[in-house]
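Chapter summary example.
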Amino acid sequence: MLPSRNRLLLSSHPSRLLLTWTVIIGDGVLADNTFCSYDKGMFSAEEWAQTSGLETAFEFEAACFHEAGHAVIGYLLGQGCSSVSVAVSYVYDFAGRPTGVGYGGMARESRAFIRKVNKDLAVGRFTGVLARYGISVAAGPAAERKFRIETEMPLRLLGATEGDHRQINTVSKILEAHGRSSFAYKRLVWRAAQRLMAVPNIWSCVSHLAGELYERADFREDKDAIYTVSGRTARAIMKRWQVTPTHAASLLAASTTSGSPDLGDTSIVATDPPASSSAQS
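The structure predicted for these 281 residues follows.
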């Protein structure tokens, strides 16, 4: 995934308007207010009511959930995972004092999968590969939004999702140029990502991986840094929570219970995960 965020901590007053859905998973009912439209999810821009030193840690943790969401769903859908990273970049005034901080991140998938994406984009044909790609891109914002709601943080994803929206929008415009609906593609991948985050063991897996990223942070100094979880460690976490390509069909089925539209399991799930890139550990 390309770096997906560039946010500064500023002071403002949050206002929140959420659409609440009830999602039925298996035999239980999960009441969750993380579900919303694509535009609301991607472009929400609430700010902190007041600023304090805690915001750096909170925003960094949100970035960890964002990148963990990309990595977990990408791996689940057969894209591989060679590493997951979150970068911290400070902004300084003329005197060299830090005045703001931004976050970037990357979840590296296999090169073989990206070649498949580019091949399908070249002909403008909607395929399971493009569906999997879009869902994994949308999974970052979906994970961050769910985390922010659960921790009652401001829903400020506008800067965080700039790269993600650009990637999804690029695919949707190419499909639209070949007679497909841009809106339908965005809605499909965003809804699928949100529903996958509502599956309990997927969310536990995302939380576990985000925790691994967060524990690597050092907030004692205001300096630029990159914190990385290796592909080996990330994949071990996913296997522990049974969030792997082998379990994709059952997890997708769980996420589409309750009368949700069929996401086309057979076309979305990679029966044979693509060969990993040379960077994969």
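To summarize the output: Residues 1-32, 257-281 have pLDDT under 50 and may be disordered.
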